[in-house]
Amino acid sequence: MGRPVWFHRSFSRCPLAAVLVLSCLVMHVRSASAIKLNSGDIIVVDPAAVNVVRINPLTGAQTLISKGTFLSAPGSVALPSKTRILVADSRACQWGGIIQVGTIVGAQSTVACGQLTQSAQGMAIEPSGNILISGVRGIARIHPATGAGSLVYRDTGNVALSGIVLDSNGQILATAQRGFGGPCPAGCGAVLRIDPTTGNQSIVSSGGSFSQVNNNLQGIAIEPSGNILVIDSGTKSIIRVDPSTGNQTLVSSGAAVPIGIAVAPSSDIFLVGIGGVGGPGQVLRVNPMNGDQTVLSSGDLLLNPFGIALVP
Asked: How far apart are CA 51 and CA 45, in angstroms?
């Protein structure tokens, strides 16, 4: 069988002049059937396969939603609704951006690109619909319709923020990784709490498991109980953090190298990552009580998945 047929109109890339964030009126439609998403479906983005995939939470069956085009290195995903998928891509628009993927024929459009979305990493949706995105400059707030944005939290040190999530009070929780090219300042290898209005930062948890030489904090999620779950890809583990005391507890560890994490209303934990050195890409279900890991879906459309989200 030949390659799929893609229909599109040509548009120029977003200009990368002195503009911080641009919203580009560009769209690409691929020839595919409309896909109906159901509550609880798992959405995964894979920078190696450059695709967006739905995973059936019961059977592990994979369905391709969209691939390529404006996507270049999709790393995290969020769903404002059952028909809109937002993808943070660290190389979209060359520097990094936010791509919207529709479930009808996999249509893609660029929401924002530019300096505020440079090397886009984690993403969360505020109740207002605004998008929070972490990158090399800190955390930015992006308007979903105009693409205009501003910094909420400026990274002034040698810290790389990765995953972000909102707690029940609307506060931002973020994983902070080790810095690049120099000593790591205070707050690195930690879970941070950031006020979405003032940008003020405090440390929720540091030291302990987060102080190991090979740690690499990535995804973050919140359990229905309010406890925080953090992925440490370096130690292949999930750490539970008490949001009040910062106490850390090991939930699970295994052979797979986890990157992204999502939690279902049932408290079941879902991970994406690679099954050891060389893959394949996997989606795993983790029992939140005893930490047992079960492979739900593996290989095929999954090469090295990074981002995961559950359909609301």
From this structure: 6
